[in-house]
Amino acid sequence: MVIPVPSYVTDYQPGSGPRRAPRSWLHSDAPRLSLNGDWKFRLSPTARVDEAAAAPDFDDRDWDTLPVPSHWVLHGDGKYGQPAYTNVQYPFPIDPPHVPDENPTGDHRRTFTLPDWDVETIVLRFDGVESIFKVWLNGTEVGVGKGSRLATEFDVTGLVRPGENVIMVRVHQWSSMSYLEDQDQWWLPGIFRDVTLLGRPRGGLEDVWLRTAYDHETGSGTVTPELVAHPTAFPVTIEIPELGIGHIYRSIEDLEPIRLPQVEPWSAERPRRYSATVRSTGEQVEVQLGFRTVRIEGERLLVNGHQVIFHGVNRHETHPERGRVFDEDHARADLITMKRHNVNAIRTSHYPPHPRVLELADELGFWVIDECDLETHGFGTLGWQGNPSDDPAWREAYLDRVVRTVERDKNRPSVIIWSLGNESGSGANLAAMAQWIRSRDPERPVHYEGDYTGSYTDVYSRMYPSLVEMASILSDSGEIMGCGPAEAQRVRRLPYLLCEYVHAMGNGPGAIADYEAFLDVSPRYHGGFVWEWRDHGLLTKASDGTPYYGYGGDFGEVVHDGNFVMDGLVLPNDQPSPGLAEVAAVSQPLLFRRDGSTLIIKSRYHSADLAGLRLRGLLEIDGEPAVDTELAVPDLAPGGEVAVELPEKLITADVSGEAWLTVLAELAEPTPWAEAGHVVARGQWPVSARVAPKPIPVRAAESVPATDTVELGPAVFDATSGTLTSLHGVPVAGPRLELFRGPTDNDRSSSRGSYELGAPEETRGEGVKGPSSAERWRRRGLDRLVHRVLAVTASDTGLTTRVRVSAANSGLFVDVDQLWTVTDGELSLRVELTPSQGWDCTWPRVGVRFDLPADCEYADWFGTGPLESYPDSAVAARVGRFGGSVDELNVVYSRPQETGHRAELRDLAIGTGEAVRLRVATLPDQAGHRPGFTLTRHTPQDLDRAEHPYQLPSNDAIYLYVDHAVHGLGSRSCGIDVLPRHALWPGAHTFTLTFPTP
Ligand code: GAL
User: Fold this and answer.
1) Considering only the top CATH level, what class is 7-200?
2) Architecture of the domain delimited by 709-992
3) Which of 87, 313, 533, 566 to mutate to test the pocket of ligand 1 (most atoms within 8 A of CB)?
4) Which residue would you say has higher pLDDT here, 796 or 389?
5) What residues have CB less than 8 Å from 430, skipping those under 6 apart?
6) Looking at the record, which segments are called Disordered (predicted)?
7) Which of the ends of the chain has fewer CB neighbours closer than 10 A, N or C?
């Protein structure tokens, strides 16, 4: 018998059966039974499966066991298929609403005992099933649920029976709805959120919405209750004990707002919540209230009368082992990490998260854009032909999704904007969603980036515009993408935000600070949301059992988008990346400026003053603390500016050393997200006049060495190559010119234009389409330089080497002169680099490499740190003394790439404590600039070749790179290239190192 594919798999209906009206996610005392736990499981390769297993007496003893919630592809070691990653591409033919016959279908079956509940109705709730499912209870079909990250409730009152019940849930990986769920993430089928049986009491509260408002002029608050309840539920009491409120309502008609003369408002900075209890005759519900009013006034988005500025991130639900299965501790830890890095906003890209996430946002304090579960990006490939967003057949499905989003999350004070979805083109169905939101919740603005002309949304939102476009949008005239003149005028009247900007893929993003600067250009700009919060790597194993974080292509996918899913500020192992430190530094809520002995503090808080903070002034000389003093905390209203005098002792320093003043704003008391002492903002300035470098006399040696080796002070050289063989008794090879770096994901990308091809930033903004930087570097052979010694000469006090460096089949070269000198027993090296004519690509770096023994594993340095920094990601770097092991100095990006550069090195000791084995110091040039360093186990060529960290060779050496300059990072993997001012163009370089006695 041929079993047909069930019609619900490919119809347009948003679901079927006794689906209940969407309602708020509530904490109720009504009885509930969690159906999470072990279920019997059977996977079929298609949707053509008979329904015999739905029968209560079906024998499922030979089925496997699978936990619920889960994604079956993340269990069974490949037995149930594999996860698959695509960004825009649909992993099936674009033939809507059809899907292939190859449609993994998972049957989940279990029994449960109905508790002895005295209730009116019984409801079966699913909080998230990907992609669609059909449910049977005791052999009878219940209905079909769709909308992967949305809740479905079925009324099963007539189907449950006392005692044991049998439930079967059939989940199909692909369905018509997959066309609406083309988000850039893993495809992970399964019942991945909770399944619960709910007893609905007589006289219960079907839905509760306590809409709150705050009047910032009077300080008063309002609670406007909206209830869905049967008349027998009344009287209903609403209590807010902290405010002494106890209101009794006799009927629905009687639901008057509660007016409160004085309340404390809720904001992301002061997430003040009040517990409210709503009690009917049959049920009690707890709601955490936050008083706030969202309003757009002119071009500004205000909460409680004050403009909101987003220092936000895009947050997907992702966990390296659980996928999208919620783990509250993990989610809380992530939100705490956000708070600790000055992130104040979350866009729930690109679907509503587990409802607890929004409660955590209420509790810890974030502005949230809550986004509907919708993306049809793959239709872009077809020029948006057939896009569901403008096809009436899909209208009901679109509306169903937005209703379920808003109804579920409407009580959350953190949610201040509703978003229709992501990258779904444009069309009438999106406009209809917006219209519905306006009728249901007129207070919260509607967001959708794809509405380029602002025809149905309330805020103007863009992703990844260039800086030139930013300037144009924020000016009063000029073209705006996708807009005619009238439309450009319209969007210029709306609050402007970046729902996505700077792409945190691999090492990067660069230029965060350049975007931040637009906050000073126009109040219309409300900041943005970095793409994205964390890498989506899934923990897997190499063939030899080595664990690693997999990305697209690691699971045998037919089509995939590689490591584009590893684009977060947090690495898969939860480690914050240096990019996150840069976000924290750029986003700090207080900005410090110094003008002589005056410190000017500018507050960027929305609603917090400085209570709860303490200010510290720190004077360090040569990186050692000299003065550490508490400064008086001035009164400073949110958004205000104040000047304070710095104590004399902080700004006068002994000029014989290098003195830096640091001002720190720290938490004075612990908060729910950080300990007392946590630094929220910092400013740093040099105090001493710059000391002019003491020139080192360099004497060019003239005679050819007569022996095989040359000794010069603490150094021994090979006379033929003129390179070191040992230094202070440590075997050392080098120096050797290096111009290459392990290309970053941004270096490898050609997805956007490049400035390298000669486009001036000012005129083009986007650069010119062309090959990636890595490609250009390879064409010029930077990854495979070869060396030819032109001359080695020596004297008693010096050794001079000239080397020509170039690549196979290239006429371009760099001449490198190394002038070694011993003066008063101290060894110095001057490196002079002279490129040939004709170089036409940037250089990733310009410096020299020293090969050290493998136990040179620890560095202490005076320079910038603590983390790596690059020309366009250096706000977080500060001058000081830092230390770390070689493994701590380098970031394990999921795809190996450049890491570990620390600019402006003064002095570096390699080895630990007593056992310092080598020291390298630098001299500043006339401009005060010094080289930076990288200490690593891997060469750029090693990094370039490996796809995953476990593929890196275990070298028997440590490499020290001393780079006079490095190329910026940019954000070209999805955004702008390294700006011309942060690019490293070929040129002559001279720098000087000394090698003090360890
Ligand atoms: C955006 C998209 C995101 C993500 C990002 C690149 O266009 O909205 O979901 O794909 O690009 O990582």
Assistant:
1) mainly beta
2) Distorted Sandwich (2.70)
3) 87
4) 389
5) 389, 398, 420, 421, 424, 448, 450, 451, 456
6) 1-25, 735-775
7) N
